[in-house]
Structure formats: structure tokens, C-alpha cells
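RECORD TYPE: inverse folding
INPUT: C-alpha cells
STRUCTURE:
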């Protein structure tokens, strides 16, 4: 059982709780591989997906995850919700609360929106990505995928490459990896690095080629154009030359190293088509893991434990 009502910041979760989520997700992954994928686990529970920023993978996989456990899942997008008519997030939250939602997944361009919502509702809140702050279920599904592919997290050298400064994926992934004993290193151009890249307690580098041959995992990020706010961006061509994975860099990687990406990919920028479609790329495994991990998170937050899942 988790000792939290919400999943907002991964930093608040212990190694034991993260391990429990990943282990429980393993059981759900087996369910997802069956022909009949439905469990009665969350029958009668209501899950609301409140997505105030665009999303393909996260929203869909929360919806599938809820439905696979028989929850009633309702989707609100920015265009269909009254936030567009000027309603505050707190008022939207109180409205959903009055309808007795059990769990609300919220995505917002505002950092801190899930925490604010949690103050106004009785429901469990899951952060589906807030601004450039955190994206905890992404970090969990990434950890799950690495464990499935490489067997463990401890001691692995994991390079996270690209727009470190504006990525919420990094904000959850680095603390999770550090906690679980991996050795992440963030890599990117100075203009896309935070002012203190070492503050998470991990290594950092401005040069990919120096560290590429030592990496077990090469985790590529998309440049967060929507969050650059006029910040200096190196030319895309130069960026790709220095930080993109192409044929030559594929050859420079360790033979067993894998390539990851949270999606959406900008083909030809962070990954060449050859790299994105190579045997090393586990990008669709990440998507697949997303459903199992989100089932696990919702199940554990809503009070389940790992013991009743075998059948
Ligand atoms: N899908 C991820 C996110 O929502 C990564 C990205 O958009 O680049 O943060």
C-alpha cells in the first residue's frame, strides 16, 4: 500500500513505494497481454482525465488503464472544459468534486496545478504533467521499461539528452533514478541546460560524444518549443549535429545500450529515422508499459495491494 493520497512529485515516494508500483505494474502487464484484458478491480469508481494541455500517450493510456480495471473514465480537454470560459482550476476542481470523482488525472501548463487541485477536492490526484515541473508516471514507466530490458536500475549509466531546462520528464526521471541507485547524467547545449545542472545530484555534460560510449541507456528528449519563451535555441541543424542520434552515434554506443524517448519524437532532430526504428529503440515498449504502470498507480492509490492480482 502507498502512504500517499496523491501522486504529484516523485520525490515524495520512497524506494519501497516505487518498487511496489513497478512490481504491481508487472502483474498488470500480464493482464494486458491476455486476450480478455478486463479486471473488475475499480468497478464503481470514477476517474476523471482533466487534460488542459495537449496529450496523446498519457491521456489515452490513463483512459485505457482505467477502463481495463472497469472504472468509469471521463475525459475533459482544455477545449471542452469551462476553464476555456474563464473558470479557475479551483472552481473546476470543486465542480468535479461535487460529482464524487474518486481520482483525477490532471495535466496543465501551470507548474503546481495538481497540488492546487489537491487542496480543493477529496479525490486522489495524479499529476499527468505540470508545466516543466514533473511527470511522475512517465518516470515510473521509464523505470519499468529499463528494468524489463536491462534487468535492474542500480548502477546503470543513463544519459538524458536534450532540452534539460524545459523538460518535466527530467524533473521526475532524474530524482527517481538517483533514488533507485542508477547513475544519470544530463547532457545538452548550455542554452538548454538549467543554470545549475548538478542540483539533482547527478552528473552533467555539454558534450554527448564524450559520454556516449559509456551509456547503458540513451534517453532522448524533445525540444520543448512550447516552453522556450524566446529563450535562445541553437539552430536545429547544429543541435542535431551535436546531440542527435544518427548512424555514426548508433555505432558508438555500447552493443547492449538502448534508446528511449518519451514521445512525441521529432524525427530527423533528436533521432534519425534509422535510430528511431532500430532494434535498440524501446520507445513503443515505453508506451506499452505506460498502461500497466498507470493501472498500478491508480489501483494502489485507490487502496489496492499487490496480493489479489494473481488471478
Ligand atoms: N510527452 C512528454 C511530456 O508531456 C514529453 C514531451 O512532450 O516532449 O512532457
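DESIGNED SEQUENCE:
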Amino acid at each position: 500500500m502507498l502512504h500517499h493520497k496523491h501522486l504529484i512529485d516523485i520525490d515524495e515516494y520512497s524506494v519501497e513505494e516505487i518498487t511496489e508500483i513497478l512490481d504491481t505494474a508487472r502483474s498488470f502487464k500480464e493482464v494486458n497481454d491476455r486476450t480478455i484484458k478486463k479486471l473488475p478491480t475499480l468497478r464503481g469508481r470514477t476517474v476523471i482525465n482533466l487534460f488542459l494541455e495537449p496529450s496523446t500517450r498519457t491521456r489515452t493510456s490513463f483512459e485505457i488503464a482505467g477502463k481495463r480495471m472497469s472504472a468509469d473514465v471521463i475525459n475533459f480537454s482544455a477545449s471542452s472544459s469551462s476553464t476555456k470560459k474563464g473558470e479557475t482550476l479551483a472552481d473546476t476542481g470543486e465542480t468535479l468534486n461535487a460529482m464524487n470523482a474518486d481520482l483525477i488525472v490532471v495535466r496543465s501548463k501551470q507548474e503546481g496545478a495538481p497540488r492546487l487541485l489537491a487542496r480543493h477536492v477529496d479525490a486522489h490526484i495524479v499529476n499527468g504533467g505540470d508545466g516543466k515541473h514533473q511527470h511522475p508516471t512517465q518516470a515510473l514507466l521509464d523505470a519499468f521499461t529499463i528494468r524489463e530490458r536491462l534487468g535492474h536500475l542500480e548502477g546503470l549509466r543513463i544519459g538524458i539528452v536534450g532540452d534539460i531546462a524545459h523538460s518535466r520528464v527530467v524533473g521526475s526521471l532524474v530524482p527517481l533514478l538517483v533514488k533507485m541507485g542508477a547513475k544519470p547524467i544530463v547532457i545538452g547545449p548550455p542554452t538548454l541546460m538549467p543554470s545549475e545542472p548538478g542540483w539533482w545530484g547527478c552528473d552533467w555534460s555539454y558534450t554527448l560524444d564524450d559520454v556516449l560510449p559509456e551509456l547503458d541507456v540513451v534517453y532522448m528528449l524533445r525540444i520543448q518549443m512550447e516552453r522556450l519563451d524566446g529563450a535562445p535555441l541553437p539552430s536545429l541543424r547544429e543541435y542535431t549535429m551535436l546531440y542527435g542520434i544518427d548512424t555514426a552515434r548508433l555505432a558508438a554506443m555500447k552493443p547492449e545500450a538502448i534508446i528511449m524517448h518519451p514521445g512525441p519524437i521529432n524525427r530527423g532532430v533528436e533521432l534519425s529515422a534509422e535510430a528511431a526504428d532500430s532494434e535498440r529503440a524501446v520507445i513503443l515498449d515505453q508506451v506499452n508499459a505506460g498502461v500497466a504502470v498507470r493501472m498500478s498507480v491508480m489501483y494502489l492509490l485507490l487502496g489496492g495491494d499487490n496480493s489479489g492480482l494473481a488471478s
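NOTES: The mean pLDDT is 93.
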